[in-house]
Design brief:
Cyclic_Pdiesterase; 186 residues; Cyclic Phosphodiesterase, Chain: A; alpha+beta; 27% helix; EC 3.1.4.58; hydrolase; globular
């Protein structure tokens, strides 16, 4: 099973996500994420044996408790890229500072600690709360992406965060399909 832990955006923001993606229209080499699948990944666990699900669930429950994070609202807005504007592989919209970013970071750090303590790999990069809008397969549209990221700072929307989800990514010919396996209330 290919697993990850996420905070999902509600369906009410699907149209706003699509509108944010439209700002990059015409940038060749971009492959957009389906707006209804956009989420904040707290931790990618990768291939995981089904018999380890209990360990994952225990880690998430402990992480939520340890983080002290309770239900909160988050605002998604502004654009960024990974790893840099010179070499773009991912185009994203961020979670705004002061509007859920600290809570998501605290959750991600606690999840990383608890899953690592149970034998899952530890993250080697600093967590940046974001939703992936597109992946850049080649550099043909790089200049357009750079310009939009530098010049535009849209608000995508604010949404309530009440749970963390354990999800399975099922790879298909049409792209990944995400299935929620378990929900953990904050």
């Amino acid at each position: 099973m290919r697993l990850f832990l996420s905070i999902d955006l509600p369906d009410s923001l699907t149209e706003a996500v699509a509108s944010a993606q439209q700002r990059f229209a015409g940038a060749e080499g971009l492959r957009f994420v389906a707006p209804e699948q956009v989420h904040v990944t707290l931790k990618f666990l990768g291939e995981t044996d089904e018999d380890r699900l209990h360990d994952v669930e225990a880690a998430v429950e402990a992480a939520i408790e340890d983080s002290g994070v309770e239900a909160f609202d988050a605002t998604v807005g502004g654009f960024g890229v990974f790893p840099s504007l010179e070499y773009i592989s991912v185009v994203w919209a961020g979670v705004r500072d002061g509007a859920g970013a600290a809570e998501m970071t605290a959750l991600a750090e606690a999840v990383d600690r608890e899953t690592a303590a149970r034998g899952f790999g530890s993250e080697d990069r600093e967590f940046t709360p974001h939703v992936t809008l597109a992946r850049m397969d080649d550099a043909r549209g790089k200049e357009r992406v750079q310009r939009v990221v530098r010049e535009e700072d849209p608000d995508v929307g604010t949404f309530p965060v009440r749970e963390v989800r354990l999800k399975e990514s099922v790879l298909t010919d049409g792209g990944p399909r995400y299935e929620t396996l378990r929900r953990f209330a904050l």
